[in-house]
Amino acid sequence: MDGAGLPEIRSTCPYCGVGCGVLLRPDGNGGLDVRGDPDHPANFGRLCSKGSALGETVGLDHRLVAPRVNGQDAEWDETLQLVADRFSKAIAEHGPDSVAFYVSGQLLTEDYYIANKLMKGFIGSANIDTNSRLCMSSSVAGHKRAFGTDTVPGTYEDIDQADLVVLVGSNLAWCHPVLYQRLLAAKNARGTKIVVIDPRRTASCDGADMHLALEPGSDVALFNRLLVAIHENGAVDNTFGVHTTGLQAALDAARKDDPAITGLDSAQLDEFCRLWIGTGKVVTVYSQGVNQSTSGTDKVNAILNCHLATGRIGTAGCGPFSVTGQPNAMGGREVGGMANMLACHLDLENSSHRTMVREFWDAPMMPDAAGLKAVDMFRAVGDGRIKALWIIHTNPAVTMPEADAVRDAIAACPFTVVSDITAVTDTARLADVLLPATAWGEKDGTVTNSDRTISRQRAALPAPGEARPDWAILAEVGRRMGFERAFDYTNPAEILREYAALSGAARKFGRDFDISGLSTLENTEYEKLEPQRWPISPDRNGGRFFADGAFFHSDRKARLLPVTWQPPAARTSPRFPFRLNTGRLRDQWHTMTRTGLSPRLSSHLAEPFVDIHPEDADRLAVAPADLVSVSSPSGTAILRARITDTVNSGQVFAPIHWTGETAPSARIDRLVAAATDPVSGQPESKAGVVSITRFDAAWYGFAVSCNAMALQSTYWAQVKTAQGYRAELAGAQPITAWEDEVKRLFACPNADAATIIDKKRGTARVVLHDDGLLIGALFISRTPVAVMRDYLADLPGTEATDVLTGRPKADVPHQGPILCACLGIGINTILDAIETRQLMSVDAIGAAIGAGTNCGSCRPEIADLLHERWSQEFGPVAKL
């Protein structure tokens, strides 16, 4: 059976904040065929590697399909009553602030609304926060200080129309690839200049006209230098200035900063300032590299100051633009899903706002002060103030700073509920109660992307087993806690109508958020809802904010803030001499609960690593592919060393994605201190301090298997492949009985084994077959194992006979490690095309074999291959 005759269903991608439209067609076997929606205004049919592989992530092998209480399957009725009773008991005995919700940008807006309403209006606490606190709360705080509300003035069309786009702390090419392709299209069509401001050289630098590798955390000093230059060059827009206050104080503060703090020479600074000032249409795109800092809010305001001073805001091709990291981080902000906010951009600590929302909800109570933000919330869990905790679609035991302490706190909490799609996450394993929620592909509701466009997520697959929508789970608990009428919902359209009506009621306070035009939406109209940008009201649809110079402070003026550079919270020292930067990879998402199911996505960078500059590697006596121990004041991780000049000496970079399920020793946030921005509460994930030493393993290993392996060594990292799994291993203690170890590893005690063991050299190669088919193979060495990993990963389940060699026969071609994940094209295939067809450009390679022609995020790596190949023949040459 296939789905060829079924209609396509319009929905929205569940990854980053770009909010790409997708067309889904069930394949008839429980899976989905996925393609980009050519009519969606966010992507016009383009998808990145992750979006293209969505169909590979909807299988049911990993799914939680029934409630569990203390590890045992249970009925919904008894489970939900238990949740309601335990939360009610904690509130009765210890007060409403003894309970907390920790939610996620993976929630749909309707889910978020119910969670926020239940906690703030009916439980009576503001202890609801979200993992979006970790990625964009500094932007929220900066917007509110400058504009009076959390208004994002930028739109994707501004990128199309800008003459200069500045990427600050944003690896747009990997983290928002569809937007990056839009930017490159603008560059090709109209000559848009691109500046990248980032301590490391990222894939986004490939198309840039300038890269400013500033010192970590020095963004305020850089933009303060720009503000001073704006004033010195007479570029202040005095006409727009009547709509602002605070310019002089901002300038006085800016002059206090020494531009040398940035680590950039004066010529670079002057060139950047001339370009920014001399270009009429400027968009400044910023993301986690700005936000994730103990001075993240000040960094945001330093950027906003420059746009406000020049009037480059509210007009086409101009403005500051915060791009978010989750599909509904924006929706969560709008609905008040954070501890210091009310719905519809109203202020929790404003008594008039509180009263209006309480009366609208007919709620019995409303907190009058902000609740616990994420870091403080888990501290309260750890010290016993929080007695009942509900975690929804997020994995804080891995993602929170000082993750080991957070894991221990959750484990010790008297009552923890986790709603998720799987039971096999670090956090889910700590829960007293697991609630099976519907996943993307089964969910029905709305999300809001980075430029305020509301899109529908629609169910294309049935909910498996007993899984339920999050809004329905939350509403049922609300009813069981005694709030029957307030949570008597039967579908998500009802929830959106109520939320939209609340936004209409909030208009009397002169706020920006308004979707009241959706308050009368019929269920059938909800089903057909097209993507549209808010505000959506009877008198306004979409459009730009601030074009009229009207802001949302009481005097309707914007504020320029006096900000000065503050050093990162942690200082490097002889004990911890390296500055640690963390971030995302091109083909993975958060903690890989979804992307880790795709063999294609796992094949590009299949192991956790740390990037180290060659000079530092020499001093540390670390060679490429060595394992290293990375330690901070809060924890230690073991990672594979990558020696690269993409980071500066004294700085290292490590990705965030690995967990206790995929690589227990590589949980990066155990290294990150729980230091936060004093305004936003956002942790400083970009500027930790660490030491690095070579990890001298007794042995190193590589394994492939048909099934997940029972890994127990000091270091291991396991990923999915098309044929099963592959794993990297290393141990601190020698193992002598390798054949027995292999049978335990692969859970095949009766399989036939073939071995080559050289005890003197410390090498072992053990292969298991069952009925002539390869079950698994393990390769051991005293140094990092040298075998053709991608070739071996294709062999489990086949009649492979030459596995022990670790490489294919000379006459057997293999495409090698996947480089273009969208189209599944390997490095060897690309190199062969370069060699045999004498290809001289990335575009020529794309035309010949397709690599780099979908999302384009692999183009910088293709360019590196070209550069390396022709440099070998012609000597040093420029990047092609």
Note down, in words, how this protein is organized.
The chain is an alpha/beta fold. The strands form nine sheets. Strands 5-4-16-15-14-6-7 form a seven-stranded mixed beta sheet, with helices on both faces. Strands 23-27-24-26-25-28 form a six-stranded mixed barrel. Strands 30-31-29-34-33-32 form a six-stranded antiparallel beta sheet. The model is unreliable at 876-880 (pLDDT under 50).
Quick overview:
By secondary structure, the protein is α/β, with parallel strands linked by helices. Helices cover 30% and strands 19% of the residues. The two termini are 47 Å apart.
Keywords, separated by commas or semicolons:
36 strands; single chain; 6-stranded mixed barrel; disordered C terminus; alpha/beta; 880 residues
